[in-house]
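Service request form, structural biology core

Requester: graduate student, group of Dr. S.
Request type: structure prediction, single chain
Budget code: on file
Notes: please return the result as structure tokens.

Sequence provided:
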Amino acid sequence: MTPHSTAHSTPHSTAHSTPHSTISDLLMKTAVRPAAVMARGSGSYLWDEAGNRYLDFIQGWAVNALGHSPAVLREALTQHSALLLTPSPAFHNRPQLELARRLVELTGAHQVTFLNSGAEANEAAIKLARKWGRLHKQGAFGVVTTHGAFHGRTIATMAASGKPGWDQLFPPYPPGFAKVPFGDAAAMEAAIDSTIVALMVEPIQGEAGVVVPPPGYLAALRRLCDAHDLLLIADEVQTGVGRTGRFLAQEHEQVRADITTLGKGLGGGVPVAAVLANERAACFEPGDQGSTFGGNPLMTGAALAIVEAVSAPAFLAQVREQGDYLGNVLDELASAFGGAVARGQGLLRAIVFDRPQAPALTDAARARGLLVNAARPEILRLMPQLAVSRAEIDEMATLLRQAYASLTQA
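Core staff response, request fulfilled:
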């Protein structure tokens, strides 16, 4: 009797299942993916199972801070996997404590809690703010966020987000989130009433297409929070850990948020996230927050290795230098393409077109061995590894020019 015939006699019968034409059909359709199956990566490059090489300027959506499979990350994972994977969150472990210590030193935070993803970190930040409002603001729970914001895919973080169309996906959403235009401090102030406990923003809106606010925006929000006795929450899941050339993007304006969330680049390719809080905001008590895998020694040990590498002053100076070079290259490309402008900071950049051609350009680039991201139909986003070289930036420009030319000649 064949394995397939015995399966029909088990309690988990698949007799009525629809046959799968390819193995990828076994995955729920939560994303549109090309057919290529990625097999390995090194630095700025990926290879698929067919042996095709790609210059990766997506890097897991700004996750691979040091590129694919960097030595410091491999070594940390090897070391910690041989010692202890997880003792459960009911116990301390040394990598968790050392990562907490280092993050506090780097950011001026008072306390840290660890989670698995940026969405979880933002969810915990919202809970922390609401706990603080109950203790210090007569039960205030509202959070002012912004149009175009992306804070995650849990129900609460989707409610906090301002991505177009998301309000129609999974209603009803939890109440308490007012949304105003991004970059408009006056609109933030106008939304403040007795129900509001916090203002929550990304220093740069990444998923919205690398939208950079006007100079002084974060500093203005800091002043608003001080004047109205509110908490400032900085969602640095995408902008933090060196992405903009400072360890935190808020440092560009000498701002310290009351609560800062980190994810993506914190683990350099492994799932770990953090919520940092100053002494004013750190009000969690036992039972308020938990995470089965959050803070496990394998992930925090890996993150500590990434943080030590990225936070080095010389490394951050190099990120700023390469970010300026990338910005200049993209300015030249945008001018050559016509009807386009480049924007961004550090190594988080975008080209904004005057028509919706980013998806077609993404496909054309991939066919030539370049991976870029269509953040919106008219916006091409680039998030290379933080150690990207000028030669790799120049290679990207050559491939992107070729891809664009193929569209105009079609």
